[in-house]
Structures are given as structure tokens and as C-alpha cells.
4-hydroxy-3-methylbut-2-en-1-yl diphosphate synthase (flavodoxin)
Amino acid sequence: MGSRMANEISKTDLDLDREPIALGEPAPRCSLQARVVWGERVVTIGGDAPVRVQSMTNTDTEDVIGTAIQVKELAIAGSELVRITVNTPEAAAAVPAIREQLDRMGIDVPLVGDFHYNGHRLLTDFPEMAQALSKYRINPGNVGKGDKKDRQFAMMVEAAVKHDKAIRIGVNWGSLDQELLARLMDENQRRARPWEARQVMYEALIQSVLESAAAAVELGMNPAQIIPSCKVSGVQDLIAVYRALRPRCDYPLHLGLTEAGMGTKGTVASAAALSVLLQQGIGDTIRVSLTPQPGEARIQEVVVALEILQALGLRSFVPSVTACPGCGRTTSTTFQELAKQIDDFLRAQMPVWRVRYPGVETMKVAVMGCIVNGPGESKHADIGISLPGTGEAPAAPVFIDGEKALTLRGEGIATEFQAIVEQYIERRYGAAAAHA
């Protein structure tokens, strides 16, 4: 066995014509490009635009100040569009005031109106609200039934055309068009080999969104301004639906598990589903629909969305900190404390640094706990430190741009390393900004 493996390795080494291993990177995306606009702020979705992040408030929209504050928090955290519920005349009347408050605070993030059941009436009766929003979310499953459905859907699309707004046709399997589903179930029974019920559900989701999009185009909607979504709460279901949807249209697509859950469950489920699709080039805008833990900030779902995109190499938002998980060689907690301190520091500074130091979001920092992988990982980072493990000499070499630059010792290693990181950022990214 050993001899045969050695021969195979030898042959492999001599095969100089072997094709290189493909680079690990997401497949290219291909779709029309939507433009969601407020004032001079234009958020492009699809085409050659980066995958966008959006979120939604959980405040009562009638609370103008509370809603405006939460929108601001979500926007600062990185949400490029923020959706708000518009469910009552009072909520509709509050939207222009919310927009005005945001503009006063210098927050130009586009607002998306989330409409269900009575959106046709609210968009007609409150034209100032229709104008203050930058995009409308329409759910084909609850815009009425029979003839009313067509009329009410048409009223919402006509409002979007009149005010030059993008729309999201958001189908959700929790509120799927039951008439369509019943028809497809009946048709399925006439097949020689009927599909499973879940497969019919997939088809109903896709047909609902595509038929609604086609109807919107007939009503004068620019196809590039239509962003479909087919949301479900199961990871494999979401992957299956979007894999089937993408070849059947060229609209920019919105991704997200609906009701993903809270905490670790919701985070892992969203990351699993979205990562598979994004890696395959499917999806142009995402939302991570987390149920906040008691007392947890709403912005956590934005943080998770940003981390998904950054982990896949699709976008960079904040310098990444590589840190080892720890083992028996790292009985000290110093590397854990320093890694958290550096990560918190970098995130806290990003609102300022993003403007002052263009490109700093791509920086890589390593905080390692012992000699096994510490020096190697530190060399691969832009700047890294290898802290001493159990039984190692009490010294921490610092590597800058792949080369050992100095060694830190003593009780002030954490403070000294943070200062070195700040100096590195100023030297590298401040200089770049000065010459821009």
C-alpha cells in the first residue's frame, strides 16, 4: 500500500501538464440591474453591483421617532436598504415624517414599504407616502382574490410606475396564493407520475412570482425594476426553489430564509442556505431574518449578513481578525482577550475609518496563541502577532506584511499591539488616501 501511494505521488509530481486546481471563488452572477433611489443615493441591485444587504425594522411605524432611530442604527450597521411595515392609514401617514427625520440626521438609506392586504388603498390614498418610499414590497398571496386580486395588484404596480419606484414581488410559502396552489395540485394528479407535494409547492412559489412579474411588465413596469423573492423557512427548500427559479428569469433576486429563528439556529440556517446559493452565483440582495434574543439589538441580523458576504469573499466590510480556537498549548486566555479587543476596536472605528482610510476593510489581522501556527498565520496576514503558548518563552513576535518586524514582551503587549495596528493603518491606508 505504502509503495503504491509513493509511486502515485511520484507520478503526480512529474505530471507537469496537469491543469491547475480551480481557485475557490463564487460563480459569476448574471441579471438585470435595478436602481433603488433616494435623492442622490442610488443603490444598484443585480448586474455588476455587489450583493446588497437589507434589513427590516420591528418598531411600530406610527412611532416616527422610534422608527427613524432604528432605521438609522440599521443603516450605520451596514443595511443598504431598510424595510418598514406600512399596514394602517396611521402608519402610511407617518412614513413622510420618518423620511424627513432621517434626512435631517443625514441618513439617506432608501426605505422599502412592506405592504399586505391593503397596500393598493394606502398607496392611492397617501401619495406623499408613496413618494417617500424608494421601493414597494408586494406579496401576491394577499392582494385579494379573484377579480379583486388583479385590480388591487394593478393599483400597486401603477403607483410604482407613477412614482418611478422599484418593486419586490415577495412570495412567501406561509402566505402562498391558495387558488394557484390548488390548481397546480389538481394538475399534478393528472400526471402519469405525480410529483411530491413539496415539489408542487416549489412550482407554485415560482409560478406565483413569475406570473406576477409578467403582469407587472404588462402594466408598464420596467423589468429591471422588478426584484422577485420566493421565501421559505427550510434550508434545502430555499436552495431547491432558487436553483429552479434562476434559469427561468433574469430579474435580480432577493434571498432570505423567512422566519430563520433566533440565535445560533437562525444564524447557522441563514448562513448555510445563503452561502450555497451565493457560491453558485444566485442572489443579488440578502436579508438574514433573525428573531432577536431578549435585549439583543436589531442590528445583529445585519452583522450576520455582512459576515456571510465577507466570509465568501464577495465583499469586505471590516478588517478580518484571524484567531486560533485554543488548545492545551494555550492555557492562557491572553490571545482570546486580545483577539476580542482588537476585533471590537476595529469594528468601532470603521464608521470613521471607512471615509478616512479607503481599503482598510480588506486588511487582515492575526492574533495567534502559540508557536505551532502562530508565525505562519501572522505572516499570511497584513499584520499579526504570535503570543506565547504554554511553556514558550514570554515573547510575542509581530509580523508586518509577511516579515517579522519586532518582538513584544511584558504586561503591556495588548496595548502596544493595538498601537502598532493603528500606526500600520495610518501608514498604509492613510498614505493611499492622500495620493487618491
